[in-house]
Amino acid sequence: MEKNSKEPIRVLHVLQRMEAAGVQTLLMNLYRSIDRSKVQFDFLVHYKEHQFFDDEIEALGGKIYRLSVREDYNFIKYCKELDTFFEEHPEYKVVHGHMHSLGAIYLHYAKKHGVPVRIAHSHTNSTQNDAKKFIKQIMNSLYRKDATDLFSCSEAAGKYMFGDGDFTVINNAILTDNFLFSQAKRDEKRKELGVENKFVIGNVGRFELQKNQKFLVDVFSVLHEMIPESKLLLIGTGSMLEEVKKKVNEMGLNSAVSFLGNRKDVAELYMAMDVFVFPSLFEGLGIVGVEAQAAGTPCVCTDTLPKEISVTPLLYRLPLKNGVDDWAKKIVEAKDNSYAHNNMKQYIVDANYDMTTLAKQLEEFYLARAD
Length: 371
Hints:
Blueprint: E1 9-14, H1 22-33, E2 39-45, H2 54-59, E3 64-66, H3 69-72, H4 75-88, E4 94-97, H5 103-112, E5 117-122, H6 133-142, E6 149-152, H7 155-162, E7 168-169, H8 183-193, E8 199-204, H9 213-226, E9 230-235, H10 241-250, E10 257-261, H11 266-272, E11 275-278, H12 287-294, E12 299-302, E13 315-318, H13 324-334, H14 345-350, H15 355-370
Parallel strand pairs: 1-2, 1-4, 2-3, 4-5, 5-6, 6-7, 8-9, 8-11, 9-10, 11-12, 12-13
Helix pairs in contact: 1-15, 4-5, 8-11, 9-13
């Protein structure tokens, strides 16, 4: 039977959950931009609870299938559920994996049930040094085993996950026009936050060890002594949120630090900042750094972040080992960057981080490979 040309192909994205985080933001930007009359996205996630992007996914026509292995750690059940899922859903010709820790398992079952296109996508260039590190490294090494295509968000992320494998770098593109600097938006958001006359620094990210917000609080403590009229904005949620709040309280910084949770006005929050500070221990790329630069905000980040994050003259790189005093001084220096609070669109486009280009590229890839 001839395939209905009006019916879109459906791509299954596999990841932990559709929370407010970097990979999820990338996928949602792509989903909003791709021609959904040709390509539709569905999501296989590993937590049962409702997440930040779930309502929008369903409004755009996407389906969300929820498993519970990250909650109950029942891997026998997980394997049975995957086996059943792919048996009951032969419509998927493309499975795009973003979750490397369990990629060897779900890509195995996708292959078993004849899914022709199986993508292993690397979004990290390191593994957190904890009790699970050895197991994670083993699972990472198996991620590519049943994949037909290897993607990564940077050269470093590709080499870390796939070694000498033939991977393709897929830039973590953004909706550039949403981040174009506006003085009116900056003024309005600063007034709303009550920081019109403050030196404002900020960070966007999950409160996890990797994101290193406790170090940022230490840096801000030094900065606050240098510039008493300073303010730290922390956007996000996560398992270490209460621990960071406790640290802020113990350091007597409650009145100078604002915890803003997950937000949908992140672009305006970048604009409200004088400097964006990005002290992550590691990142596959660090899409928030690209967003902040697109918004015209100077950025001070760790020197371990991939080189691809340097897309404008607004970015400063600094080793964590330099210590909090050097970081505070660099932040003060960055606020006077001559490119600050200007339209940075051309830089983003020239660096191939504009979503219009990526959406077309992946749309053509999905359609060609699923045919």
